[in-house]
Write a structure and sequence with these properties.
By secondary structure, the protein is of the alpha+beta class. The protein contains seven helices and eleven strands. It has helices spanning 19-32, 49-63, 95-99, 106-125, 165-172, 187-190, 198-202; strands at residues 5-9, 36-41, 73-79, 82-88, 92-94, 128-129, 138-141, 146-148, 155-156, 159-160, 163-164. The strands form four sheets. It has a four-stranded mixed β-sheet, sandwiched between helices. It starts with a strand and ends with a helix.
Length: 203
């Protein structure tokens, strides 16, 4: 059968104008032979340390996790100047979109909340704090499976593949710079204090 692929751009880019990126994505889909979403860092951001660091941090966080309520990672790497992350292809809508028409029934609210809590518990058990949990980063598939997305701001407190991610995360968080989204940011996050898993529970 033909496989389906969706290309998602980091930093909100919606077009793939770079032929090298086009070729890289086609090669990936052919190699994996499965329905996938390919998240690509725009070429002009590849030399920006903060953009590249966030992109790589998300890949490391998701790679450390395997849970039905967290988007699954299939591949990560670079081809030339194209940096990519390949995840499962999700079809459905964000929690934000589901909330837009009207409030959710109580039983549906509890089901989604429990699934988010299960996914977060798995991340927290690995020493990973999401730090940007919000309705836009929770996805409801067409089969009504809840998936947590976008670990680009995650704080990782363990070492993976020989990389001290806790040190790297600290270096990427500058004093006076808010990490997260106002409205879903915990008081300690706003104050720039050390974070615990409670910051995700607050969100």
């Amino acid at each position: 059968r033909k496989v389906k692929a969706a290309v998602v751009f980091a930093a909100g880019f919606a077009e793939m104008g770079d032929p090298a990126q086009q070729r890289a994505c086609v090669d990936l889909v052919r190699r994996l032979r499965r329905d996938v979403a390919v998240k690509v860092l725009a070429t002009h951001l590849a030399d920006d340390p903060s953009s590249l660091a966030r992109f790589q941090r998300e890949a490391r966080a998701v790679a450390a996790l395997s849970h039905p309520n967290i988007v699954a990672l299939f591949d990560v790497g670079s081809q030339g100047q194209t940096h990519y992350v390949v995840t499962e292809l999700l079809e459905g809508e964000t929690l934000r979109a589901r909330l837009s028409p009207s409030p959710l029934p109580e039983n549906e609210t509890l089901r989604i909340a429990n699934a988010i809590a299960d996914g977060l518990a798995a991340a927290h058990a690995k020493g990973i704090i999401h730090r940007d949990l919000k309705p836009e980063n929770v996805f409801l598939t067409s089969a009504d499976v809840v998936k947590i997305l976008d670990f680009g701001l995650a704080s990782m407190q363990q070492t993976y593949a020989g990389i001290d991610t806790a040190i790297q995360t600290a270096a990427l968080t500058e004093p006076g710079v808010l990490m997260g989204t106002i409205g879903y940011t915990s008081p300690e996050q706003l104050a720039g204090r050390p974070l615990t898993t409670a910051t995700d529970v607050y969100a």
